[in-house]
Write a structure and sequence with these properties.
The longest helix is centred in the N-terminal third of the chain and has 20 residues, at 41-60. The protein is elongated. By secondary structure, it is of the alpha/beta class. 40% of the residues lie in helices and 13% in strands.
């Protein structure tokens, strides 16, 4: 099958496999990127994720919201992806790269919604959420909805705490994000 695909695209691939793989079924991944341009695996992965986000956005439609969101995540790629999705839905975004920065941002600015990764360095999302809640209570500020997101959404019982208004599993999906925003913000 791979040989047929390669013939159709007029590309040749020469592989040297270790002896232990000769005669065995081997899965080969082919990226639709010109490797000679120096694209890294991360760049190719980002391109594929960008295409996936664009398809999800088209499927969800053009629902738009207004407001300001705080997004905290220590992973730069995840941060860029969620920010892009939120901005595409009409919100202004401020970013933080750990829980401590998120608390500082919340204390300095007004937000309509907060998105908080749970596993972060310096201060994790749980502690940051607790500090944000204490800050709001101490200053008699209205509660800003806090949406936690994590790869372990189904296994961490701490995500069921009352301070967390909603929880999203990674990887984030545009339709779920739109559903959560619809719950807390006006479109």
């Amino acid at each position: 099958m791979i040989r047929k695909i390669l013939k159709l695209t007029s590309n040749d691939i020469n592989l040297k496999l270790p002896n232990e793989f000769v005669g065995k079924e081997v899965e080969i991944l082919v990226f639709p990127t010109d490797i000679s341009r120096g694209a890294t695996i991360e760049q190719r992965t980002q391109n594929m994720q960008d295409e996936k986000i664009a398809k999800e956005f088209a499927a969800v439609g053009s629902k738009r919201f207004s407001g300001k969101a705080l997004v905290a995540d220590d992973n730069e790629i995840n941060l860029q992806l969620i920010c892009r999705m939120i901005e595409d839905l009409g919100l202004e975004v401020v970013t933080a790269r750990n829980g401590k920065e998120a608390v500082e941002c919340r204390e300095a600015e007004k937000f309509d919604i907060v998105f908080m990764d749970i596993a972060m360095p310096v201060m994790d999302g749980f502690e940051a959420i607790e500090r944000i809640i204490k800050f709001e209570q101490k200053n008699h500020f209205p509660h800003v909805p806090i949406v936690a997101f994590t790869a372990n959404a189904l296994t961490d019982d701490r995500l069921k705490r009352k301070e967390i208004d909603e929880c999203l599993a990674k990887p984030l999906r545009k339709e779920k994000l739109t559903e959560v925003l619809s719950k807390f913000l006006k479109s």
